[in-house]
Amino acid sequence: MGISTAALSANRMHLLTNITERLPSLSVWSVVDILLVAALIYQFLLLIRGTRAAPMLVGVGALVLTFYVAHKTDLRTLDWLIGTLLPYGIFALIVVFAGEIRQVLARIGRRLTLSRSVQASVSEVYDDIILAANLFSQNQTGALIVIEREIGLRTYIESGVPLDAQLSYDLLATIFRPSAPLHDGAVIVKKDRIAAAACFLPLSINPLLSTQLGTRHRAGIGITEETDAMSVIVSEETGGISLAVAGNIERELSPERLRERMSELLRHLVRPGAAHGTESATPELDQQFEQIGRNPDSGQPEVEK
């Protein structure tokens, strides 16, 4: 009995040794290589999730599967056709996924340089924007305000009327007055200054967006697909306030919720209602909200009905 047990143990050890020898040896660099590839695939899937690239990637996968099946079977004509078009297909993929490739390279560049945009007087900056958005919402005045973050918006700034003016609530209210010459287009905010007004932005062509979204909303989303900017959008039809970032849009936001989201996105650790480091809500901002709510037309631009 003891001999049988020893022989069985020896056979198991021999089998394990054979399996171990046949397995490829994993060095530290091999493990690092696998982890890096897994991380790249994961980040790529996160990047295209919910965008127009996701269904396109499914189509590319179907073509690759068709090519594999044709290559392994006797479908010679199909195999020859796909094999001939494949080199050109690589260039076509680069053109189709140009926007996503730009986003990946920009994100990698930001992480490698460890760049952090310095937001000068951040709380006052977005307080003025929130106050203006609240006014536009009450008066149903259409508005589009784009806030530059880490990726420069010089191309889009040059498409509008340069201002380089100190950002303020009064200036935003004046720009988006319906009778003002600069009310069409977007206002681009760079740190604590309005860089330009009446700017042209790329329209989003994401087929997953609601058909209820008009040109203003699609332009606000489109700029966030191309860059890391965020857009504050006020609907002229409903007065609803929306926030677009990274190709996604949050609709029907209250001024308080807009303040929370902008605080998070600008990486300014301020609790809602505590933009100046106090335990209570920002008194100046809340008083101005109340004043606008009591008398929306007091000192504000008139809106054509």
Order of helices and strands: HHHHHHEHEHEEHEEEHH
Number of helices: 11
- The third-level CATH topology of the largest domain is YojJ-like (1
Instruction: Summarize the amount of helix as a percent range.
Output: 40-55%
CATH H-tier superfamily of the largest domain: DNA integrity scanning protein, DisA, N-terminal domain
Distance N to C terminus: 100 Å
Q: Can you give the mean pLDDT?
A: 77
Given the helix and strand composition, which structural class is it?
alpha+beta
Number of domains: 2
Q: Order of strands side by side in the largest beta sheet?
A: 2-4-3-1-5-6-7
Characterize the largest beta sheet: strand count, sense, and whether it forms a barrel.
Answer: 7 strands, mixed
Radius of gyration, whole Å: 28 Å
Which percent band covers the strand fraction?
Answer: 5-15%
User: What is the annotated CATH architecture of the largest domain?
Assistant: 3-Layer(aba) Sandwich
